What we know:
Elements: E1 2-4, E2 14-15, H1 20-32, E3 40-41, H2 50-53, E4 59-60, E5 71-73
Parallel strand pairs: 2-3, 2-4
Antiparallel strand pairs: 1-5
Amino acid sequence: MAVPAERSGTSRAVLGSLDEELAGLVRAFQSDHPGCEVRTVEMPLADPFGPVLGGDVDAAIVLTPVREPGLAVGPRG
């Protein structure tokens, strides 16, 4: 997961290609954290980091390695 380095968590969206496995993880997260809103959106393959860096979403599920200035990689705890 890639997130802006200055952010401490996610609140608005998970970005990525939604397959059945990811959809199940989103449902489980929402069940475990009913106070958190999760919206899924498709990301443009040509610019997978633009929506995160632009503040349109809070996190992206992307292929690694990620070498993008201003992003942190991995779950945040």
